[in-house]
Amino acid sequence: MEQLEGDLDTLDRAIGERVRGLRVARGLTLEALADKSGVSRAMLSRIERGESNPTAQLLGRVCAGLDVTLSALFAETERAAAPLSRRADQALWRDPGSGYVRRVVTPPNCGAAADIVEVEFPPGASVTMESSRTPALDQQIVLLTGRMDITAGETTHRLEAGDCLYLHLGQPVSFHNPATKAAQYLVVVAQRALRS
User: Crossing angle for the helix pair 41-48 and 30-37, nearest 10 degrees?
Assistant: First the structure.
């Protein structure tokens, strides 16, 4: 975790550059992204300049405005493609609001059909992620240890170790760890399979 704490300013700048790059690639002004995301122009500007340590909820709103997932925001576009992602080299990010830590497991730029993220979620913590406007994505959440309450729409699912929850992206999802110990889970985000 020392790598995570020591690189906070670098990580904030990288997030800002990624947000700016995605915004520009979509032809959006700061004002247009503010309108789409519900995040103020001033806050978006601070994020893009790396002057803000945004929470997962705030980044979720920005991602919804950009029509990307949080996984896409954290995708490592600068690293060379590699088929192997060693744990020591995997990008980490800590949400300053809830304290949860996400680790990008998928090898960078490998063209994988799915993104895999490992999450360590502190006891008692909660976070709500805005809905992605990317309609053709699904996610599966596999609880490795602990317990999690995950609410999608009006339905709350209690996950125990070994459980897997399938969700179609497109609605807000709330995560809560009701236990006194940290929970650990994998999130797999992939294109929705076409069914005939």
Answer: 110
